[in-house]
Write a structure and sequence with these properties.
Elements: H1 8-17, E1 22-26, E2 34-49, E3 59-61, E4 69-73, H2 78-89, E5 95-100, H3 103-111, E6 116-120, H4 121-125, E7 132-138, E8 143-151, H5 158-171
Parallel strand pairs: 3-7, 4-5, 4-6
Antiparallel strand pairs: 1-8, 2-6, 2-7, 2-8
């Protein structure tokens, strides 16, 4: 088995080309082309430095972030699209000052007050959180729906089937 890390759009292309058998990605996805097994649904939380003016708040409306510097996952990652589209729906284009493929790097940049970022609750539960504050975002809240994704009606090797079983067991009671 070989594990590949790539953005959602590249993963979809790799699945359709047959260069990978199974992906883990963020919904929504084209369910006409893919079989989807939802795994977990969580909110994205705002992460700011403890010294950021918003750090005193427990929740914030998305529109209040209009003038902030955003630290996001790279273009091609679903989380980039989710945050950007939510901002546009709230009436503004986010000012994106840095993009990364690594959530821990985004967390460190936020800790140094280089901007604000959004990360899933599940990632933050396992993260070293000193120097940052997490804040619930509403109007609208932004959700992170993780799923196993395979080409529609495709053969799965025994290794792929075992990996799917392992992932479902890992998420346990969260699996839909």
């Amino acid at each position: 088995m070989r594990i590949v890390e790539e953005g959602a759009k590249d993963m979809e292309r790799s699945l359709l080309e047959g260069s990978i058998d199974v992906g883990v990605g963020i919904l929504p996805i084209n369910e006409a082309a893919f079989d989807v097994v939802p795994l977990v649904e969580r909110k994205l939380l705002l992460v700011v430095s403890e010294s950021h003016p918003l750090a005193e708040r427990e929740h914030v409306a998305l529109t209040a972030l209009r003038d902030e510097n955003f630290l996001l996952f790279m273009r091609g990652f679903s989380l980039y699209d989710r945050v950007r589209e939510a901002c546009i729906d709230a009436g503004f284009e986010p000012r994106i000052v840095n993009e990364s493929t690594q959530w821990d790097f985004l967390l460190k940049l936020a800790r140094e007050n280089m901007g604000i970022t959004f990360l899933p609750e599940t990632v933050l539960a396992d993260a070293a959180m000193s120097g940052v504050k997490t804040i619930d975002v509403h109007h609208p809240s932004i959700h992170w729906n993780l799923a196993l994704i395979c080409r529609k009606n495709s053969y799965q090797s025994p290794a792929a089937e075992e990996w799917i079983r392992w992932v479902r067991a890992y998420f346990g009671d969260d699996v839909k």
